[in-house]
Amino acid sequence: MRAAALPLVALAAAALASFAQAENRHDSQAPIDFSAAHQELDDKAHRAILTGDVVITQAEMTLRAARVNVAFSGSALDGSPEATRVDALGGVTVTRPDQRARADYAIYDVKGRTITMLGNVDLIQNGNNVAGGRATINLDTGRASVDGSAVGGGGSTTTTSSGRVTGHFTVPKRDQ
Q1: Is 10 helix (H, G, I), strand (E, B) or coil?
Q2: Burial call 111-147: b when 16+ CB within 10 Å, e when fewer
Q3: Strand partners, 30
Q4: Whether the predicted pLDDT of 8 surpasses 70
Q5: Rounded Cα–Cα distance for residues 143 and 92 (Å)
Q6: Maximum Cα–Cα distance across the chain
Q7: With 70 as the cut, is the pLDDT of residue 13 above it?
Q8: Which residue from 108, 72, 112, 71 is spatially nearest to 93, judged by alpha carbons?
Q9: How many whole angstroms separate alpha carbon 120 and alpha carbon 98?
């Protein structure tokens, strides 16, 4: 690796770490609330399908999408459902107080405490951004990874235009 590329790699790693560390403080034990234009509940299949400007909130994290499938254990009919996985598609945006992540599709593994975002991923924080095809954020460890391509539904592949991870970092202004 050329010496000139090393600072860029360090900056990318720092930006990802910053995004992930803030996510590390996320309370994944907090209740999950939702609003949507329509809900379909299939208690036997242990899932709820939410459509129409779906908004999911948990602690300080908000997820917005056109459609969300929520898998749960227990029974909604007897009042004991517990969300285990949230699959969102259609203009997915996940926000925290100082961060925003956008993608075509996202999977929130509630039990595993990870968020995987696929297709046209863009992570934004304080004027810095990292874009790629797939991002995985572990809410427990604070580790995040981004790559340039992602496998989408039906075996298709979604990539950034270059198939690579790209980014933009701000630099502090120097006092003169």
Answers
A1: helix
A2: eebbbbbbbbbbbbbeebbbbbbbbbbbbeebbbebb
A3: none
A4: no
A5: 21
A6: 67
A7: no
A8: 108
A9: 20
Q: Which residues contact 137 (CB under 8 A, 6 or more apart)?
A: 19, 20, 23, 101, 114, 115, 116, 117, 143, 144
Residue 72: exposed, middle, or buried by beta-carbon count in 10 A (0-12, 13-18, 19+)? buried
- Residue 25 banded pLDDT, cuts 50, 70, 90: low
> Six-digit token pair at 23?
């996510």
- Residue 52 dihedral angles phi and psi, to the nearest 5°: 85, 90
Cα–Cα distance for residue pair 110/148, rounded to 1 Å:
25
Give yes or no for a contact between 82 and 61, defined as CB atoms under 8 angstroms apart: no
> Whole-angstrom Cα distance, residue 121 to residue 107?
13
| Domains of the chain listed by start with CATH number | 5-168 (2.60.450.10)
In the chain, the amino acid numbered 166 is T
Per-residue pLDDT at 141 = 75
Handedness of CA 156, 99, 29, 80 (dihedral sign): negative
